[in-house]
């Protein structure tokens, strides 16, 4: 049985493209070694991430993320058990939505909100993540 966790957070300061690429590279290396997969979305200072893998490893990484000084307002959106990975081919999927057109069917504006993003409902964030599900 796998465990998944979705959270949102705010960057303490705007992240440059180079900083995002560095975050992606270090995340891929760490998560591959820990056999974790998932998806990281960033836009306009907001992160949305889905982590999946062995429960203890996901929870350990999440505890580390909660202490990471690059984030604040780290909020759990959803947790649960699942039979298979949503993102089996990636150690960490990443999409810098600031650099991509956002004209996608089913796009959620959760990352466009300038109010507090931590009140996003779990289903709302999951719908956004499903746009990037590699099994489709």
Q: Secondary structure elements and their pairing?
A:
Layout: E1 2-11, H1 17-33, E2 37-43, E3 46-53, H2 55-67, E4 71-82, E5 93-96, H3 122-130
Parallel strand pairs: 2-5
Antiparallel strand pairs: 1-3, 1-4, 2-3
InterPro entries: Acylphosphatase-like_dom_sf, BLUF_domain
Pfam families: BLUF
Domain BLUF: 2-93
How would you portray this structure in words?
- The protein starts with a strand and ends in a 6-residue tail after the last helix.
- It is an alpha+beta fold.
- It has a five-stranded mixed sheet, with helices on both faces.
- The chain has one domain: Alpha-Beta Plaits.
- Strand 2 (37-43) and strand 3 (46-53) form a beta hairpin.
- 29% of the residues lie in helices and 30% in strands.
């Amino acid at each position: 049985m796998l465990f998944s966790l979705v959270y949102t957070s705010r960057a303490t300061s705007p992240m440059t493209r180079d900083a995002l690429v560095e975050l992606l590279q270090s995340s891929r290396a760490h998560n591959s070694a820990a056999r974790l997969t998932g998806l990281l979305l960033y836009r306009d200072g907001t992160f949305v991430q889905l982590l999946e893998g062995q429960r203890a490893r996901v929870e350990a990484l999440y505890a580390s993320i909660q202490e990471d000084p690059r984030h604040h307002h780290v909020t759990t959106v959803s947790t649960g058990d699942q039979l298979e990975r949503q993102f089996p081919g990636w150690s960490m999927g990443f999409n810098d939505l600031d650099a991509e057109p956002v004209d996608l069917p089913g796009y959620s504006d959760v990352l466009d909100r300038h109010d507090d993003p931590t009140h996003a409902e779990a289903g709302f964030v999951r719908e956004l993540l499903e746009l990037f599900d590699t099994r489709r």
